[in-house]
Amino acid sequence: MKNEQVFPEPVRSDCRIRRENPDDYFETEKMVREAFWNVYHPGCTEHYILHCFRKCSEFIPELDLIMIKEGRIIGQIMYVHSQIVGDDGRTIPTLTFGPISIHPDHQHKGFGGKLLEDSIKIAAELGAAALLITGNVQFYGKFGFIPAKTRGIRYRPDPEADYLLVRELREGYLGKAQGTFSDPEGYLAAKRHPDDFEKYDRQFPKKEKKKLPGQLTFA
C-alpha cells in the first residue's frame, strides 16, 4: 500500500515454505487477521479476502503458500490471475499477489522478504510472465519491481499512481504495451458483502478496532 513502512530484511533460513492445504485454512486466516489488524484501517479484511478468493476462478492453489517456523504458521502469500486491458483492445494476462502476511511476532526480521522471493521463483517456474501489485517501491524495488506507469500501465482507481508496481518475469513479455490494470474483483469482497464479512469475522477472537496515525484515509 502507499504508506507502508520500509525496514531492512536479512535473508532467513530458519523456516520452510509449503503449499497451504484445507487443514491450514482457519489457522492461516487467524494469523493473517493478526498481521493486518488496525494496520491500514480500523480492524482489517485481509483474512476475509483470502477466505473468499479460495473459491474464485482467479485463485491459483499452487501459489497459495504458507511459511512454517517451529511448527507454527507465521506467514502466508497468495497469487491470483489478473490482467492489463491494453489501449489497443487486447488483454494481457498477468498475476497479482497479496495479501502477504507475517505474524506480528516475526515482522521486520526478514521472513517477508524470503516468502516473497521464494514465491516469485515458484511463480516463474509455473510460467508466470509478469506481476502487478500495489505497494511501496522502496521495499518491492529490492525484488525487481518498478512503477508500472513508467511502462505505460495505469491503475484504474488512480491513473497517476506511483504505487502500482510491475515486474516482468519473462523478459520482453510486456513489450511496449500500454493499458489499464484493475484489481481482481475478489479484493473487494468485504465491501461488496459487508454483512457476510461481519458474520465471518465473529468466529475469531474479539479485538478492538482502533483509528491510528498512518492508516489509509480512503479505506
Note the topology:
Elements lengths: L15 E4 L5 H12 L9 H8 L11 E5 L2 E15 L4 E12 L8 H15 L4 E5 L2 H4 L5 E2 L5 E3 L8 E5 L10 E3 L7 H4 L1 H8 L18
Parallel strand pairs: 7-9
Antiparallel strand pairs: 1-2, 2-3, 3-4, 3-9, 5-8, 6-8
What does this structure look like?
It is a single chain. This protein has helices at 25-36, 46-53, 111-125, 137-140, 189-192, 194-201; strands at 16-19, 65-69, 72-86, 91-102, 130-134, 146-147, 153-155, 164-168, 179-181. Residues 1-9 have low confidence and may be disordered. It is globular. The termini are close together. It is 23% helix and 25% strand. Strands 1, 2, 3, 4, 7 and 9 form a six-stranded mixed sheet that branches. A three-stranded antiparallel sheet has the order 5-8-6, with no helix packed on it. The longest helix is centred in the middle third of the chain and has 15 residues, at 111-125. By secondary structure, the protein is an alpha+beta fold. Helix 1 (25-36) packs antiparallel against helix 2. Strand 3 and strand 4 form a beta hairpin.
Global structural class: alpha+beta
What share of the residues lie within helices?
10-25%
Q: How many beta-strand runs?
A: 9
Shape: globular
How much strand?
15-25%
Instruction: Report the end-to-end length measured between terminal Cα atoms.
Output: 11 Å
Total DSSP helices: 6
Q: Return the average pLDDT rounded to an integer.
A: 93
Order of helices and strands: EHHEEEHEHEEEEHH
Task: Characterize the main sheet.
Answer: 6 strands, mixed
Radius of gyration: 17 Å
Low-confidence stretches: 1-9
